[in-house]
Amino acid sequence: MKGHILKLLRAENDVVSGETLSSHLGISRVSIWKHIKKLRDVGYDIQATPKGYRLINDPDILYPWEFGDRELKIHYFDEVTSTMDVAGNLARNDSPHFTVVIAGRQSKGRGRLKRNWLSSEGGLYFTIILRPQIPPVFISRVNFAASMILARILHNMFHIDARVKWPNDILVNERKVAGLLSEMEAETDLVTFINIGMGVNVNNDPTLREPMAVSLKKIMGRNISRKQLLSEFLDEFENRLNNDTLDNVISEWKSYSVTIGRQVKIVTTHDEYKGIAMDVDNTGALILKLEDGSIKKIIYGDCFHT
């Protein structure tokens, strides 16, 4: 109901009467006031006048009602340890496909290889619970689809040259604007769930602790709507998963790659490799030509351009 009230207020540049809201939404004027009060309590600047209500300021808040038909599948928290932690618990308790966990801040955001992900206010931090009918060997295609789609959306929305770094970082001018982490559980030959966690530097400033990172606000010189960015991503990503086999996603990802052909260093849990990134195969593994001329397939690791 809060989403419907906001939609009606946003459609007008003037005051909307309580009677009009009540008539459109089929609830009492007292109920309208209660919803308005709750919206004001959480940060919406709604002016109450003798003639009705006017939306003065529309904050960039990621509450479930901001996402239309997705509302029932969205869980928002002002702060959590990690959206991956929350999503993992929800997934193991049968939350449906494409449930989304969003946080304003994370106190223990996670990156690959157990690294910390700086998660200050103003960034976009979320995890999507997916239940794809796909063998585990091809599950990386879901990750590659997510990072490629985000890069494409950043290009289309902001006309910036967003590129993917293997395995799933998003760079703009060699500086990290977003990262992806996935965790999955499987039984026999089918995936039970895969959780895709993403952190996007939107209106936060990550450079104090990560000098090679950058935010969209810094690139564009203005605040960016996290609501609009997340809505665009969820729509396009879900549409791709529902209407495509993902057979061609690796080749599409390569068209955005800034890693292939580069001299790189790959750090895994136990080893370190240096060489030239030659290709990415159909499972998402990096094909690395080592300094001695031998070929090494890297399934998982952190990549540094050198």
Polypeptide structure, described:
It is a single chain. With 306 residues, the chain is an alpha+beta fold. The chain folds into 3 domains: 2-57, Winged helix-like DNA-binding domain superfamily/Winged helix DNA-binding domain (Arc Repressor Mutant, subunit A, Orthogonal Bundle), CATH 1.10.10.10; 64-254, Bira Bifunctional Protein, Domain 2 (BirA Bifunctional Protein, domain 2), CATH 3.30.930.10; 263-305, Roll (SH3 type barrels), CATH 2.30.30.100. It is built from 8 helices and 14 strands. The chain has helices at 2-10, 18-25, 29-41, 83-92, 140-158, 216-220, 226-243, 249-254; strands spanning 45-49, 52-57, 74-80, 99-106, 124-130, 162-165, 169-172, 175-187, 190-200, 263-267, 272-280, 286-290, 295-298, 302-305. The strands form 3 sheets. A 7-stranded mixed sheet has the order 3-4-5-9-8-7-6, sandwiched between helices. Strands 13-12-11-10-14 form a 5-stranded antiparallel sheet, with no helix packed on it. A hairpin with a 4-residue loop joins strand 10 (263-267) and strand 11. Helix 2 (18-25) crosses helix 3 (29-41) and helix 5 packs across helix 7 (226-243). The mean pLDDT is 91.
